[in-house]
Design brief:
The complex is a heterodimer of chains A (about 160) and B (about 290). By secondary structure, chain A is an alpha+beta fold. Chain A has two domains: about 80 residues, Ubiquitin-like (UB roll); about 70 residues, Orthogonal Bundle (DNA polymerase, domain 1). The longest helix of chain A is centred in the last third of the chain and has 19 residues. Chain B folds into three domains: about 45 residues, Uridine Diphospho-n-acetylenolpyruvylglucosamine Reductase, domain 2 (2-Layer Sandwich), CATH 3.30.43; about 120 residues, 2-Layer Sandwich (Uridine Diphospho-n-acetylenolpyruvylglucosamine Reductase, domain 3), CATH 3.30.465.10; about 110 residues, Enolase-like, domain 1 (2-Layer Sandwich), CATH 3.30.390. Chain B has a five-stranded antiparallel sheet with strand order 4-5-10-6-7. In chain B, strand 6 and strand 7 form a beta hairpin. Chain B starts with 5 loop residues before the first strand and ends in a 13-residue tail after the last helix. The chains are: A alpha+beta (about 160), B alpha+beta (about 290). The interface between A and B is large, with 38 and 37 residues.
């Protein structure tokens, strides 16, 4: 067992298998944005306080800025780019648009991923549970009412879609 | 990139311990990453080999054995929140987990990291002090159990020996306790470093008399503060504002807060006593 400055890893991102080499102190965020060129995931504070870099790792929300790229080895990652299917937005994305839950848009991918992870775990969240799930995400322009409305409606749309 | 950082991912705890024994001075264990990666970014952490223990099965899981619960050091705060065993043995730990960081942080951060970081503001620590938690420490040649209060020496300083890893935390249900609380004051409800925190376990009689009390404050001294004098002084008295008011001077003697970027020492002194009044609220929510 030898420590390395470059580490080979394999993982799945938005359904695609990837294998590459990462640097020892590289973050998952840097890997996603600068090497995989998936620019939807944002860097806000870089220290886990704003949630702009939220991704879903094995079904759970996580701050990509606090995760080592080497630690995503063997894991399944979903970023905002992975939400749409065949050119169609995810119901959650549609409800964000319909409820004006987006203003400048910088925080939106993070909110979407936090909400997506919540709805996977709990398809019937009440407002309190929604607020709890997105409280690690900051929005400095829209305010939170529309975002909570959007998640509530997104949950309804997803349930409807599933029952089809 | 900074070429002075290296990374290794041992497959087993045994391999991790063997590696740490060889490289104790230059290695840094990383699990959830929430502290270590922030440290790399700020430049506080450099010239290290990161030993990734996040995948080690030996550090995972919550087990119940003969009335005790052992929480693996690699268990996340989210896993603690979801655990029925923790709910039975240490409900206050779940109250602390609920206000720990954010959902994202709770999905990543581990209880072992929160303990070994030994921050005076670590949100699991006051509860673990109040529960008289014991830590299981393992190296390639030893296995020992030490009380948490002997383990934490000061901010960022622990009794973790060379080549040792925290394997898990042992908790017993505090006998007779009917109130299990964790209260904190920070700049906001989530993602806030505690300005002052308080864990309180109280045993109350049917008539509201305090039969025993365990109180532990965070962020008011270099380590979490428990005061035998305060606990003794509350015992045998009714849980009322008057009783709580009587222990204020003892609390003031026990704590030694500092001024920092988050709050002044004087403010912390006021909050350390006013948090006690929260014990009078929501009394019906006790089990």
């Amino acid at each position: 067992m030898k420590p390395n400055t470059h580490i080979p890893i394999e993982f799945t991102i938005n359904g695609k298998k990837v294998s590459l080499e990462v640097e020892a102190d590289e973050t998952a965020l840097k890997l996603i944005r600068d090497r995989l060129l998936l620019k939807g995931t944002k860097e806000g504070c870089g220290i886990g306080e704003c949630g702009a870099c939220t991704i879903v790792v094995d079904g759970k929300s996580a701050n990509a800025c606090l995760m080592l790229a080497a630690q995503i080895h063997g894991r399944e990652i979903l970023t905002v780019e992975g939400l749409e299917a065949d050119g169609d937005l995810d119901p959650l994305q549609k409800s964000f648009a319909d409820h004006h839950a987006v203003q400048c848009g910088f925080c939106t991918p993070g909110f979407l991923m936090s909400s997506y992870a919540l709805l996977k775990e709990n398809p019937h969240p009440d407002r309190r549970e929604i607020v709890d799930a997105i409280s690690g995400n900051l929005c400095r322009c829209t305010g939170y009412q529309q975002i909570v409305d959007a998640v509530e409606d997104g949950a309804k749309r997803l349930r409807k879609e599933k029952s089809k | 990139m900074k070429k002075d950082v290296a990374y290794v991912r041992p497959d087993t705890l045994e391999a991790a311990l063997a590696f740490l024994k060889e490289t104790e001075k230059t290695s840094r264990v990383v699990a959830g990453g929430t502290d270590v990666v922030a440290g790399l970014r700020s430049g506080m952490l450099k010239g290290v080999c990161l030993v990734d223990i996040s995948g080690l099965a030996e550090l995972k899981g919550i087990e119940e054995k003969e009335g005790e619960v052992c929480i693996g050091a690699g268990v996340t705060l989210s896993e603690i929140l979801a655990s029925e065993a923790v709910a039975r043995v240490a409900p206050a730990l779940q109250n602390a987990a609920r206000v720990f960081g954010s959902r994202q942080i709770r999905n990543m951060a581990t209880i072992g990291g929160n303990i070994c970081r030994a921050s005076p503001a670590g949100d699991t620590l006051p509860v673990l002090y109040a529960q008289d938690a014991q830590l299981e420490l393992i190296s390639s040649s030893s296995l020992r159990r030490v009380p948490l209060r002997d383990f934490i020496r000061g901010p960022g300083h622990t009794a973790l020996g060379a080549g040792e890893i925290l394997r898990g935390v042992w908790l017993k249900r505090a006998p007779g306790m009917s109130m299990h609380r964790f209260e904190k004051v920070g700049n906001r409800k989530v993602l806030a470093v505690s300005i002052v925190s308080l864990a309180a376990l109280l045993s109350l009689s049917d008539r509201g008399i305090i039969e025993s009390a365990r109180l532990a404050w965070g962020s008011v001294a270099p380590t979490v503060v428990r005061s035998a004098q305060v606990e003794k002084s509350l015992t045998g008295k009714p849980l009322t504002a008057e009783t709580l008011g009587q222990v204020f001077p003892l609390v003031q003697q026990a704590i030694s807060p500092i001024d920092d970027i988050r709050a002044s020492a004087a403010y912390r002194r006021r909050v350390a006593v006013s948090l006690l009044f929260r014990l009078l609220e929501n009394r019906e929510s006790c089990d």
